[in-house]
Amino acid sequence: MLMGLVVGTVVSTRKEEDLRGLRFLLVRELDQQMQQTGKMVVCADAMGAGVGEVVLYASGSSARQTAVTKDRPVDAVVMAIVDQVEVGGDTTYVKP
Helices marked H in the chain — which ranges? Predict the structure, then answer.
């Protein structure tokens, strides 16, 4: 799993039939200090996350293991919304 910040949404009115009903989010990867790495990915949203939220996402074959994405042609999925991050005993993020 990777951690990221939801920075936007992606809307597509025409898409592969297996993608219908999925919501797509634009997620920027975060490092353990909660700094953006510059890497960006489009994720299917299995959690109802919103812009500005910190999330955990999976990519590759793991992205097709949630109930929402099972056997669908996705390469990344938001699978958790982060409440708090602690690194080395220090809290680096708390959901507002």
Answer: none
Residue (of 63, 45, 50, 56) closest to 85 by Cα position: 56
66, 72 contact by CB (below 8 A): no
Closest by CA to 41, choosing from 16, 78, 85, is 78
Please give the structure tokens belonging to residue 47: 């959690």
Residues in the chain, overall count: 96
Check if the beta carbon of residue 91 is closer than 8 Å to that of residue 84: yes
pLDDT digits (tens, 9 = 90+) for 28-87: 999 988 999 999 999 999 999 999 999 999 999 998 988 889 999 999 999 999 999 999
C-alpha 27/C-alpha 21 separation (Å) is 19
Domains of the chain: 2-11+21-94 (2.40.50.220)
Map tokens 């951690």 to a residue: 3
Upper half-sphere CA count for residue 17 (Cβ side, 13 Å): 0
